[in-house]
């Protein structure tokens, strides 16, 4: 879809506010015609007929009312235009945000956060001028000049002909200049997106840059990118000012020509004029005043559309990025079974499984791209109510397995079964409602601790939140805070330690009360005391649930009912800790390499380092 077609397709988002803006604009134009006629009557009566205040008093009163009504109409039009733009902004933000949710983490991992943030903020804000200014201006340009011509031609066809001939010059030069400005607008938008992305990356990695002494070099790079953006902005402004000057020039030329024709013919009423000028139709002072006052009103919509044409170009440059994002297709799900059980009308089956339920990977293959296989015939089963641990070196496929289960990826081939149902047949929203996920680095959002725990159950009462916090061993430190569960935390849990954040994430899982819990290295990077508390919470969380653990801590692995050792996208070994330790396989080598610890220390081993041996 082209940019213009895309922008027009979102016009319905503005709703009735846009139609009201256009209607008020037309009404304001009609009031301007009436105002010009009344002014002409008053001036003609005072200047040429010698009328006094008594004779024109009623006309002055009507003119005052017209001034007030026209001013009120202009105010209503501005208000309606703002409402139309606000509706479009909110609707588009909702649409883009929901589409990004559907695209999932895999898509976002390949995009620069700064560019996406710029698109969702300034990019969508740049569309305001298109819907609030350009579209009404374009519609009024097609209506008001025609109405004024209909009024002017009966009064003086010469002035009407001048208007008719000079009017097309304004949009013609607007298009000629605008075609040059559009490429500059697009370049400016790309420079802004690049600057935003780079600046955000620099801010996020500021600590690393400081430690490696690279902060000054990056500051110079930010300055260089900022200067490039400044240069592209000045180029756009240069063209914008030039086009405004050209449009004003042609509008002034048109008004001047009309004034010359009107003026010379009025002058000819008292002085002899050339024969060719005398051949033109006569005109009265009243008609002349009326036409001269209407001339600026005739060119005003054309000039306004030319000015607002730059709002359209800015919107087109911003829309290109949105079209790219909205045209991206979510990860295609595997083809469902021909006759899945309990298939709903939507095409997805409802989850029919006991609590807790088991899951099974059947010959699952997955490739991120051609020639890059992440999983090669992954085959394993997690029985209902069991605790299964996934271990392996970096790149073995642990994260891919988790993302497949969470529904962020779909198998290239093979099946994932939940109970006896294929995951591809299930509605993702319903499936995820049966999951609880505790990642290695949980995300806390700015707000209260209670709201962060309620993330999975927004309607949970405070007693349920407290009970979940107690079971996650988080109640003690929460209740010691000044505001308790209403205590505010910063973005990403600023103000809390890593162990406290991890226990809040566990509290979320307890509150959600899901039958399947996925723990992604939940005890990594914690001090011994925090690890002990988190581990106690995990022990309680595992009761009556199916637990799938990606683990680096030996203590976590030892407690698993079954350990799956992944290598090169396959299950290389499977068994209990004792069985695998006694064998001479990958797991045993991991234990031998990293299982020896000093007295009093926690058993820690890091399978990610196994590749270094």
Structural class estimated from helices and strands: alpha/beta
Class of the largest domain, according to the CATH hierarchy?
A: Mainly Alpha
Please report the distance between the alpha carbons of the first and last residues. 53 Å
Percent in helix: 55-70%
Under the CATH scheme, the architecture of the largest domain is Up-down Bundle
List low-confidence stretches.
335-346, 596-605, 607-613
Number of domains: 3
How many helices? 21
GO molecular function: ABC-type transporter activity; ATP binding; ATP hydrolysis activity
GO biological process, one term: cysteine transport
Domain ABC transporter: 359-593
Domain ABC transmembrane type-1: 22-314
Q: What are the key terms here?
A:
single chain; 613 residues; alpha/beta; ABC transporter transmembrane region fold; Rossmann fold; 3 domains; six-stranded mixed β-sheet; four-stranded antiparallel β-sheet; 21 helices; 12 strands; 61% helix; 11% strand
